[in-house]
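Reference record:
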Amino acid sequence: MKLNYKYARIQGKALARNTMWAKGVFSMFNQMLEENVMDDEDRGLFEELDDWFAHNLPWPEPCKRQEAVVCWFKIDNSEEMMKMLRPMLWLLEKYNRPYYLVCTNFPGEIVYEDEYQVAAKTDGKLQIDEVQKSWSPED
C-alpha cells in the first residue's frame, strides 16, 4: 500500500508553550544555540544551513508574531529543503536530540501558505485521553 501525504514536519519531543505541539526543527536548534551545546564547527555548519533557509524559505507572518501555528513542509515541493535538512538531522543525532518525521494530509486550518510550506492554527490545548480498556485477549 502506497501512502501519499501532502505535508511533512520534523519535530522533537518538547512542547512549545504557545502551541502545545512538539517544537519544530528550527526551534530545536534555537534551543541548542541558547544552551551552547554545539562545538564551534557544528555551530558554523548549522549557521550556514540556517542562512540558506533564511534566503530560500519565506518566514511566515504568523510565526514572526509567535501565533499558535505549526508549520509543515509541502512534500511535493520540499525535495531541495529536505536535502538541506539532512545535515541538520545529522547534528540532532550527534547531540542526542530525538526527532520525528510526521506526515499528514490534515495539518489543521491553514492560515498561511507559500510555495514550500503551510502554517496551520492550533488551539493551544493539549488533549490527554484516559487509557483505553485493553483490547488484547485475556490469558
Observations:
- Residues 7-121 form one domain.
- The longest helix spans residues 40-56.
